[in-house]
């Protein structure tokens, strides 16, 4: 029997752990799923970990990684060589974190659309509702806004 799934989340290991894990991944040929949620790996540790990841041919899922921009760049290179590797991460964070972009207010998007085309809301919906049922499908609405 061999280890296929390894959950190392919440262990708090840092660069030394990332180096050790990278070295282990170089020679591991059985591990399929690795969970690294909530550990303290810096850019230096990411680089060491990715070197081992590049040499690994069997890992298919790397899960719950809090990543930084350096990791994303190294990951892109690694995924080119290993297209079967799937990395699940919740966003860029760590030492060079960025705020996620703000979602647009849907009402503002609609209002801007109407203002640009000098339409009233009533006219906009009346143009979409060709059959006069007072119902507009989501698909029809999206098509109308994209035009």
Our count of helices gives 6
Largest sheet, in brief, is: 4 strands, parallel
Distance between the termini: 58 Å
Domains (count): 2
Rg to the nearest angstrom?
Answer: 24 Å
Question: Which CATH first-tier class of the largest domain would you pick?
Answer: Alpha Beta
Outline type: elongated
Query: How many strands appear in the DSSP assignment?
Result: 4
Spatial strand order of the main sheet:
1-2-3-4
CATH superfamily of the largest domain: Ribonuclease Inhibitor
Give the helix/strand class: alpha/beta
CATH architecture of the largest domain: Alpha-Beta Horseshoe
Mean pLDDT: 79
CATH topology of the largest domain: Leucine-rich repeat, LRR (right-handed beta-alpha superhelix)
Please provide the ordered H/E string of secondary-structure elements: EHEHEHEHHH
Query: What fraction, in percent, of the residue positions are helical?
Result: 40-55%
Q: Spans of 5+ residues with little confidence (pLDDT < 50)?
A: 93-99
Beta-strand percentage range: 5-15%
Secondary structure elements and pairings:
Blueprint: E1 5-7, H1 15-27, E2 33-35, H2 43-55, E3 61-63, H3 69-81, E4 86-88, H4 106-117, H5 121-128, H6 138-146
Parallel strand pairs: 1-2, 2-3, 3-4
Helix pairs in contact: 1-2, 2-3
How would you sum up this structure, described in words?
- With 147 residues, the chain is an alpha/beta fold.
- It has two domains: 92 residues, Ribonuclease Inhibitor (Leucine-rich repeat, LRR (right-handed beta-alpha superhelix), Alpha-Beta Horseshoe), CATH 3.80.10; 41 residues, no CATH class.
- It has six helices and four strands.
- A four-stranded parallel sheet has the order 1-2-3-4, with no helix packed on it.
- Helix 2 links the parallel strand 2 and strand 3.
- The longest helix has 13 residues.
- About 5% of the residues have low confidence.
């Amino acid at each position: 029997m061999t280890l296929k799934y390894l959950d190392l989340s919440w262990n708090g290991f840092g660069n030394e752990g990332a180096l050790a894990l990278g070295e282990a991944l170089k020679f591991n040929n059985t591990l399929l799923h690795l969970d690294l949620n909530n550990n303290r790996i810096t850019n230096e540790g990411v680089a060491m970990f990715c070197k081992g990841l590049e040499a690994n041919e069997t890992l298919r899922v790397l899960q719950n990684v809090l990543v930084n921009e350096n990791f994303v760049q190294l990951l892109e290179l690694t995924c080119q060589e290993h297209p079967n590797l799937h990395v699940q991460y919740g966003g860029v964070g760590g030492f060079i974190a960025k705020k996620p972009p703000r979602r647009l207010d849907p009402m503002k998007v609609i209002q801007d659309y109407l203002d640009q085309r000098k339409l009233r809301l009533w006219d906009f919906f009346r143009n979409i509702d060709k059959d006069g049922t007072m119902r507009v499908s989501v698909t029809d609405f999206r098509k109308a806004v994209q035009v």
